[in-house]
Amino acid sequence: MLKLEAGCVQVWHNGELIMFGILFLLFVFVFAVNQITSLHKLYLAFHFFMMLWPLCHHLISVTSDPEFQNLMLKTAYFSMNIVGYGWLWFTLVLIRGVQELKWKSLTLTAVPLVIVTVLIFANPGDGFYRVSGGDFGSREYGPLFWVFLAVNIGYCVIALIAMLRAVRSRTSLKQRNQLILFAAGIVILILFAFLDSLLSVVLDPSFRTAGLTSLGIILSDLCFVVAIQRYNAFEIIDVALRDVIHHMTTGVVVVDTQNIVLEANRSMRRFMNVRIGEPLLPERDGHPTGEQDFAELLRRHQHPNKSSQFEYSFPTGEVRHVIVQISPILSRMKALLGHAITIQDVTEYRNLIRRLNSKNAELHRQNEELTMTQKELFLANQRLEEMAIRDSLTGCFNRRYLNQYLEREVLVSRRYSRSFSILLFDIDLFKNINDTYGHLIGDEVLRSTAKVVMDCLRQSDMLARYGGEEFAIYLPETGEQEAMAIAQRIRAAVENNEVQTKRGPIRVTISIGIMVCRPSEFPNEDPKELLDQFFSRADAALYAAKNQGRNRIITG
Predict the structure, then answer these.
(1) CA geometry: angle 162, 163, 168, nearest 5 deg
(2) How many CA atoms lie within 13 A of 172 on its CB side?
(3) Per residue in 329-374, pLDDT tens?
(4) Can you name the CATH fold of 2-234?
(5) Segment 216-228 mean pLDDT
(6) Average pLDDT over residues 421-443
(7) Domain 248-345 maps to which CATH number in 3.30.450.20, 3.40.720.10, 2.40.240.50, 3.40.50.2000?
(8) Is 154 left (phi over 0), alpha (psi -120 to 50) or beta?
(9) What is the CATH number of domain 397-555?
(10) Residue 157: exposed, middle, or buried by beta-carbon count in 10 A (0-12, 13-18, 19+)?
(11) How far, CA to CA in Å, does 85 sit from each of 50, 89, 110, 112, 158?
(12) Residues 62 and 87: beta-carbon distance below 8 Å
């Protein structure tokens, strides 16, 4: 009877190794026929820990080293601990996607995992399991084992609930069938693990080596494999990405280190005649084309360790402008695998820039014309303003402007009690000059006299043609003595001035009447009326100078 039981135990020990081999073959099969994605990597880790359970039990049966057996037993339960936690997160990734994983949730849900892992390896007070006489075939489980079982079944139950809710919310029959298969795998693992614990720990310890948990792992993983292969669980992301790339307006092509095209989207064929498996635009019939020139330009910009970008214009047919980005594809060991080339059509953008530049140039030209027009208007306004305030013959101010200016000056002088003087003069016997020499010579005498008088004045003084051959001079803040000195200087300068004409030089004299204005003496009078009085008194002084023999100065 003992020999029979020993034979059965050996058979089941070999069965654990066989189950490990089956799991390993399934593991290799999945990754041999599928591309690696984040979801694949998660399944890789998950599958690895599932394989550890039967492998560790097999290693326990083939060695007699108690320390090694103890380590393998703890590793086996640790792997099952990871499987329970992995079921939960594998389920959430399937339902929500890798991007929805949150580190805070991962950390919080891992707290029971960490606690149970510590209990497994510490085994305080043999509370998890106890070995009798160094025989690992005869071991007893304590209360910590049931904590381990409850935590892992709890992980699986939460994953199962999330899976069933997702099944009800999915509208796609394919997705629902896929999730149902994954849910079935969870249920199988829970049932077989619970049944193994019930038979081996509670009812009959002789069933401990029966490997029901390993069988449950096998059946559960088969549900995984069927769901993956039948419903392309791992390929849906790649398919979606390829679909997005093929519908992009940007051309995309991937080449290897020999410039053999590995992949190209539809948009790429608008720019280049590429075919998967062929070199990037080979020469045809020995005659290079515009496309070959472009391909050669691509090859020159392909660097093994850095990206490059350039702009190119296709010369054939309608001119098209493109921006080309070339990026190396490197392995984890920084070895060059190939290049990814993207081509973006910027023809419309360049045409828009060209039209915009043309519009800007036209606008700039119009702005220059407008600026010139504004300058001309400004100069014209200046000329009009000069014409409005100056005498066209002599260039000095006219009588109207002098009166407007003096009205303001009277108010200022009255406010600050400042005196000013007015000189009124005319050219003696000017009528004889016009009668003798003509009006053109008379005009020249007027211009020359005005210039001589202007040279004798201060910068603050003002000369105005008052009418005919009569002129007025405004001397601000000037008293009687200073006004007389200025008048004497003016009279002498005019007397000494010779006006050159075709009929010989002409000399003239002037008579000057001075009026010293003290506005404080007339505090309440209107400025216009006050100016009339001032000019009347200056005019009277002027005529007194003429009556007394001309070429003299009289103060009014």
Answers:
(1) 100
(2) 5
(3) 887 677 888 888 888 888 788 788 888 898 998 898 999 989 898 9
(4) Rhopdopsin 7-helix transmembrane proteins (1.20.1070)
(5) 77
(6) 92
(7) 3.30.450.20
(8) alpha
(9) 3.30.70.270
(10) middle
(11) 12, 7, 7, 9, 10
(12) no
Query: Residue 7 is which amino acid?
Result: G
| pLDDT digit string, tens, across residues 267-285 | 777 777 777 777 876 555 4
* Per-residue pLDDT tens over the stretch 30-54: 655 555 555 666 667 777 777 777 7
What is the three-state SS of 257-316?
CCCEEEEECHHHHHCCCCCCCCECCCCECCECCHHHHHHHHHHHCCCCCCCEEEEEEECC
Using DSSP's 3-state secondary structure scheme, residue 472 falls into strand
Please state, in angstroms and rounded to a whole number, the distance separating the CA atoms of residues 31 and 406.
106
Q: What is the pTM of this model?
A: 0.41
| CB-neighbour burial class of residue 487 (10 A; exposed 0-12, middle 13-18, buried 19+) | buried
Exposed / middle / buried, residue 262 (Cβ in 10 Å: 0-12, 13-18, 19+): middle
Reported as type and span, the H/E element at residue 531 is helix 527-547
DSSP structure string for 80-149: HHHHHHHHHHHHHHHHH-GGG--HHHHHHHHHHHHHHHHHHHH-GGG-SEEEETTEEEEEEE-HHHHHHH
Taking residues 237-250, report their average pLDDT.
62
DSSP secondary structure of 483-499: HHHHHHHHHHHHHH-EE
Strand order in the sheet with 308-314: 261-264, 251-256, 336-345, 320-330, 308-314
Q: Which residue has the higher pLDDT, 85 or 492?
A: 492
Structure tokens at 18: 């066989």
Fold match between 2-234 and 248-345? no
Residue with tokens 């298969």: 181
Residue 331: per-residue pLDDT: 73
pLDDT at 295: 67
